[in-house]
Amino acid sequence: MTRPFLSIRAVRKTFGAFVAVHDVTIDVPKGEFLTFLGPSGSGKSTTLYAIAGFQDPTSGDVLLEDKSLLAVPSHKRNIGMVFQRYTLFPHLSVAENVAFPLRVRRRPDGEVKRKVADMLALVRLEKFADRYPGALSGGQQQRVALARALAYDPPILLMDEPLSALDKKLRQEIQAEIRRIHRETGVTILYVTHDQEEALHLSDRIALFKEGRIEQIGTGEDLYLRPASEFVAGFIGNSNFLPAEHLETESGAATVRLADGSIVKGVKATHALSRGQTARLMVRPEAFRLTPVSGNASLAVEIVDTAFFGDRRRVVARTGSGDEIDVRPSSDAAEPAGADAAASRRIFFDPAQAFLFPA
Amino acid sequence: MLLDYDRLGWLRAVLAAFTALVAAFLLLPVVFIILLSFGSSRWLAFPPTGWTLKWYQELLADPAWINAALTSAKIAAMAAILSVLVGLLASFSLVRGEFPGRQLLRGLLLTPMVLPVVVFAIAVYAFFLRIGLAGTTIGFVIAHTILALPFAIIPIATALEGFDKSIEDAAIVCGASPLQARLRITLPSIRIGIFSAAIFSFLASWDEVVVAIFMASPTLQTLPVKIWGSLRADLSPVVAAASSLLVGLTLCLMIVTALLRRRSSR
Fold first, then answer.
1. CATH class of B63-265
2. Which of A233, A255, A288 is the last residue in one of the domains?
3. How far apart, in whole angstroms, are the C-alpha atoms of residue B173 and residue A209?
4. Nearest chain A Cα to B171, which residue?
5. Can you give the residue ranges of every domain in chain B?
6. How would you write B39-64 as a 3-class SS string?
7. pLDDT for A192-211, tens place per residue?
8. Most CB within 10 Å of its CB: which of A130, A312, B148, B247?
9. A89/B164 Cβ within 8 A
10. CB < 8 Å to B171, chain A
C-alpha cells in the first residue's frame, strides 16, 4: 500500500477532565472526500480544528505527506478552510476576498488576477466580483468562501458545517456544486457535518463519530447496509428496532426469538452474543414488504396509519407488544394498497437484511 | 412591558412636554451664548440690541486666543492618537483575553469617566509636580489621554465584540500571520469604532477645563482655560465668540460621526 496522503494518528484532545477526541486515527488518500459525521459534541469539529491548527491536540500527530503539521503555525499550513459562519472580509469586495490569500503570499499581480477570475468561474460568481459581502446571499457568501479557500491550491480543504446556516433547498444546490468542484479540482476534502443525508450525498467515505471516537468508517453503503453498531444503524437512515432474544449464532447468522414468540433464522449478527441474551433487531423501513416472499420472516401487526408518497408508501404498524414500526414498501403493483388502517395483517422482511445488536 | 409608549394615553403629552423642557434647559444656554456672540452690546446684554461680527474679528486678531486654540487642538490631537492606540490594545485584551481580573481591569480603565474630575485633577497635579511633568505639554497630553481612554475603549470594545473572530481565523488559514490578519482584516472591519473613539477622545480633551486649569501654565493654555480666565477678568463678548467656535467644532465632529455610522450601517 502506498503511504497515506494525510494521516491522523491517535489524535487526542482533552479539556480538563473531558475527553473531546479519543485517540482518533484515520488515513486519507489523496483526492478523497472524507466526511466527519456525528452529533454535536462528538469530537468531529475538534479533530478538524487540530488539522487546521486552531487547537493543539493533547497527544497524537497529524502528518501530511509524512511531515508533521503540528509544529507548523496555522497560517503556514497552506490549508484551505470554509467555516460554518460567514467569514468573508466585510470591507473587501468579492474579488479582493478571493485575492487575499494570494496577496499575502505576494504573488505577482497578473497571476492574482488570473487566479481570481478562474476561481470565480469555478463557483459561477464571475458577475459578482465587485460586490461586497453584505450584498450577497448566504449561499453566495459560502461559494465565495470556497473560492477563497481554493485560490492558493491547498492540498487539503477543510469544511466545517459550511451549509448549516442555509435553507434546505439551497443546501442541496450547493452540495451539487461542492461535488462538481471536488470532481473538477481533485482536492482532498475533509468535511464536517451532523446531517447524514449531506454526508451520504457528498462523501467517498464517512467517519461516524460518537463521544470522541470513530464508531465506524467506510463508504455510505458500508454504513447503511453493514452498520457496525446500533448507533450507526440509528444515525444513518431510518431504522426500526425490535426487542429480541438471542438463541444462537453460526458464522454470522443468528437465530432470535421475537416478542411475539416467533423464531427468525438467519439475521446478521456482528457482535458476539450469548444464548438467551436480550438484543435488538434492526430492520430498515424499506426492507419490509406487505406481500409474502418465500424465505421471509413475518410479523403480526396492526396498521395504524398509511400514506402514499409517490414511489413509496409509508405505513405505520404496531406489533402485538406495542412497538411502532415504520414501513416504507415500494408502491409498485407488486405491493397492493390493501393496507387499511386498524386492519390486522402480517408484514414480511428478509432476515438477511436484519441486523442484531446487543441491547 | 411596564411602560409602553403607545399605551400611555394622555400621559404621552405630559411626557413630551417634560422632554421638551429638559432639552430646552440643556440647550438654551448654548443658543444664548451663540446669539450673544453676534450681539453688538459690549456687556453681554440679552436680547442683543444689534448684530455684529466684530467680536469674531477681535478674537481672530488676538494671538493669545489663536495660540490657545492651537494648543487645544495640538493637545487634543495627541491625546486622541494616544488614547486610540492604548484603547485598541486594551480593547483586544478586554474582549479577547481570558485572564483573571479582566472585569476588574475593565472597571479600572473606565474609572476616569466616573471619578470626580477635580479629584483626578488634584491627584495628577500633585504627582506631576513631583516628577516634573506639571505645566508641560507631555504632562497635559498624558492627563487628557487618561481622561479620554474610556471614550476610546467603549466604542472600540463594542465594535470588536460585534466582529466575528472566525473572520480573523479565516484570514489566518488563508496565510496571513496573526498580526497581518489583525492589521489587514480586523482593524478595517472595526474602523467605524476606531473613528468614533478618535473623535470622542479628541472632544474629551478639546473641551476639558478642570484638569486643564491644573495643568496649564502662563505659556501653556488651552481654549477652555483661556475662556475661563477671560470670564473672570472681563465679561467681553469675545468669550462668547470663542465659546461658539468651541461648540461649533464639537457639533461638526459629532455630525460627521453620526453620518459615518449611518452610512456604515446601511
1. mainly alpha
2. A233
3. 25
4. A101
5. 5-37, 63-265
6. ECCCCCCCCCCCECCHHHHHHHHCHH
7. 999 999 999 999 999 999 99
8. B148
9. no
10. 89, 100
